[in-house]
Amino acid sequence: MGSNHMEGALQKDRLIILHVGDIFLDGPVVRLRRDTKEHRRQELRDAFMSFLDIAVKEEADVVIFSGNLLDGRYVGDDTLTFLLRAFEKRPSCHFVIAPGPCDPYDETSIYRSKRFPRNVHVFMEEVLGTYSFPEIPVTAYGWGYRAEACTHAPLTGVHKTPSDRFTLLCGYTRLGDGESGAAPVDENAIAAFGAHYTALSGEIHDGFHRAGEGIYAYSGSFEGRDSDKVAKQSGGYIRVVATHEDNGWRVEAERRPLDTYSYVTERLDVSHLSTVSDARQRLEARIRERGYGAKTVLRLILFGSVPLKANFEGLDAESYGLYSVWLEDRTVPTDDGELLLREMTARGELYRYFYPKMTAGEEEDRARAARAFRIGYAALIGEDFAKY
């Protein structure tokens, strides 16, 4: 292909772009044992470095961080040095950062440091910015948050500059959700803008989607932190290959997994059981069926009707070959409540009050009533109720 197609840039008719988001470096890792949290923070840094090594191995031209590279509320003093070294050691890659609501470009942001190397570009404004790479035929457009909320619509009334260059668009948003504090953008605006690839973060959104002549995709989470917020996209990055042909750029994209930790939620029916030991066979079968292992953080929701004295404490992750487990007990003590329903005591009155609430309505409401009953029952019989 002749150089006239690239408007003076170096000839390059095949580009590789890697897209990630929601990494949350330095952010707290929730629902882990206290002795594992600092270890996991370091492991997240290690996973980030491994991803950058993948970028070098893939000979990526551009790596896009489409929001929340950092968790600005918890950034440590050494984080800037860590990032500077990471980017400086990989001069063959160009890095594009679009600050999100958790790492906004505010007065305290480390993105304000003038020490970032030349291969790093940060979008500093809520209005749409642009950057053309001199070494490669790529122009990147994007916006960055200046605070935890962004109400500016960055694509309103703007279009890309006509060019043979490959165009990227990146930022944090939730499509069509203008009242959420996320920069209001919709699919029509993406299509009208006309970027070849639009790299987004901000929600869980499966697959790749056509918008005009380009495609857009959400990064998903780089690595899970809490199963409440992580869907099946977590633990990976998007690899985009752009090839210049006679009629323009052909774009292919795929999601690739990383060997990172998986946060999952499982529901287990323990009706008529009393202890973790009783439920062990069911739990082990579920773990084998799902293929969970040493890099699985399991949120285990127990539900069902159980005896009054049921106790599911003491679940040990290591004995099941998992990294960590946290237990959410939504069982209700209704297996053997007949006697209490007839008992003319304070305990019986307490049970009669909560019984309708434990046997009707939504599961979370029933579980909340069961917890309240257990606290009151333990207090009445002189047992420690703090565990509830």
Structure overview:
By secondary structure, the chain is of the alpha/beta class. It is 24% helix and 24% strand. The chain has helices spanning 34-57, 79-88, 187-193, 276-290, 338-342, 346-358, 363-380; strands spanning 14-20, 62-65, 94-97, 120-122, 129-132, 138-142, 166-172, 197-201, 209-211, 214-218, 236-245, 248-257, 262-269, 296-305, 324-332. The chain has a six-stranded mixed sheet, with no helix packed on it. Helix 2 links the parallel strand 2 (62-65) and strand 3 (94-97). The longest helix is centred in the N-terminal third of the chain and has 24 residues, at 34-57. The radius of gyration is 26 Å and the shape is elongated. It starts with 13 loop residues before the first strand and ends in an 8-residue tail after the last helix. Mean pLDDT is 86; it is low at 1-10 and 227-233.
Q: Beta fraction of the residues?
A: 15-25%
Strand order of the largest sheet: 4-3-2-1-11-12
Low-pLDDT stretches are 1-10, 227-233
Percent range for helical residues?
Answer: 10-25%
Order of helices and strands: EHEHEEEEEHEEEEEEHEEHHH
Largest sheet entry = 6 strands, mixed
**Oligomeric organization of the protein chains:** single chain
**What count of helical segments does DSSP give?**
7
Q: Please tell me the overall pLDDT.
A: 86
How far apart, in Å, are the first and last alpha carbons? 70 Å
Strand tally is 15
Shape: elongated
Helix- and strand-based class?
A: alpha/beta
- The Rg value, from CA coordinates, equals 26 Å
